[in-house]
C-alpha cells in the first residue's frame, strides 16, 4: 500500500494498493498510520485497489462471497464469453460493490479506518470481465473504496 503524494491536491489524500514488487508500506494499517503521522488522514477520500483485485486471496474471498450471495449470477457470467460488454455480466456487476463490501479482507480495512475515525462509505467498480488464464479464471475489474468520517 502506498499513500500517494497528493500535494498537488491539498484537500485530498488517497491510498493505492501496489503489487508486492513495488515500493510501499507492508500493510494497509501502516499506510494509514503514515497518513495520520503526516496530518493528512482526514483528507483520505479513496482507496485505489485495482492491483489488489488480482491477488489470489482477494480472488478466493470474492468467489466465496459471490457463491454465497449470488451463485446463479456467477455461474451465468462464468459460462458466458466474459468480456465486459457481455449482457450476462450485468446482473453480477449490479451486485458486485455490495459483495466486495462483505468480503473479510475489506472488513479488515474497515477496522483499520475506524481506528482513525474513518469508515468505508462505498465501493465502486468499472470494467468487469473474466480473465481466462492457464489454470483457471480470474474475475477482473477496477476497484475503488470511498472513505468518509465516522
What brief labels describe this structure?
150 residues; alpha+beta; five-stranded mixed β-sheet; 5 helices; 38% helix; 27% strand
Total beta strands: 5
The structural domain count equals 1
- Roughly how much helix do the residues carry, as a percent range? 25-40%
Overall mean confidence score, pLDDT: 87
Taken from the alpha-carbon principal axes, the silhouette is: elongated
What order do the helices and strands follow? EEHEHHHHEE
Q: Biggest sheet, strands in spatial order?
A: 1-2-3-5-4
* SS class: alpha+beta
Low-confidence spans: none
Oligomer: single chain
Distance between the termini: 22 Å
What is the CA-based Rg, rounded? Answer: 16 Å
Separate helix tally: 5
Strand residues, percent: 25-35%
Structural overview:
Helix content is 38%, strand content 27%. It is of the alpha+beta class and 150 residues long. It has helices at 28-37, 56-69, 71-79, 90-102, 104-114, and strands at residues 2-3, 13-16, 44-48, 118-133, 136-149. The mean pLDDT is 87. It starts with a strand and ends with a strand. It has one domain (2-149). It has a five-stranded mixed β-sheet.
Amino acid at each position: 500500500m502506498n499513500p500517494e503524494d497528493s500535494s498537488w491536491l491539498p484537500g485530498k489524500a488517497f491510498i493505492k494498493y501496489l503489487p508486492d514488487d513495488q515500493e510501499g508500506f507492508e500493510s494497509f494499517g501502516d499506510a494509514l498510520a503514515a497518513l495520520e503521522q503526516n496530518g493528512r488522514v482526514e483528507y483520505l477520500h479513496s482507496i485505489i485497489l485495482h492491483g489488489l483485485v488480482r491477488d489470489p486471496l482477494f480472488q478466493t474471498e470474492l468467489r466465496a462471497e459471490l457463491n454465497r450471495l449470488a451463485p446463479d449470477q456467477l455461474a451465468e457470467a462464468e459460462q458466458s464469453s466474459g468480456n465486459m460488454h457481455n449482457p450476462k455480466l450485468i446482473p453480477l456487476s449490479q451486485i458486485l460493490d455490495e459483495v466486495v463490501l462483505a468480503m473479510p479482507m475489506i472488513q479488515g480495512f474497515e477496522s483499520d479506518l475506524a481506528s482513525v475515525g474513518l469508515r468505508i462509505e462505498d465501493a465502486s467498480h468499472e470494467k468487469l470481465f473474466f480473465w481466462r488464464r492457464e489454470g483457471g479464471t480470474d474475475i477482473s475489474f477496477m476497484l475503488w473504496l470511498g472513505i468518509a468520517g465516522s
